[in-house]
User: Fold Dolichyl-diphosphooligosaccharide--protein glycosyltransferase subunit KCP2 from Petrolisthes manimaculis.
Amino acid sequence: MGVTTTTSFGLATLCCVLVFSALQLYKNQLSSTRLMTLIAGYVASWLFIFMLTALNNLENIMFGKGFQAHILPEVAICLILACCAAGMVHRVSVTVCLLCSILGLYYINKMASSGSSGQAVSGSKKRK
Assistant:
């Protein structure tokens, strides 16, 4: 069951704020070891996903349904902002954030192009 575009925008914005504040709150712990630095980059890639979702929902609210995010303005801005947030933790986190964000963007694009509406398809067929 999906939510409306306005609700999705609010939830994605709330998740952006929570992820960014968690990155800043635990900055010292996240930059202390190699593993935590990698985790910080992965968490920052979720910031990218949430920002892209919020921005696309805002555009759908403003410009109407069917408006899609494009690579240059929307994706690039969200990627740069997420990498900057990762860079506030550690330099290595930027690279991990970039790689995980590109991988996440690939799978989001794959899901969107397959035309899945998020509804489960039943495997059983009814006979007449």
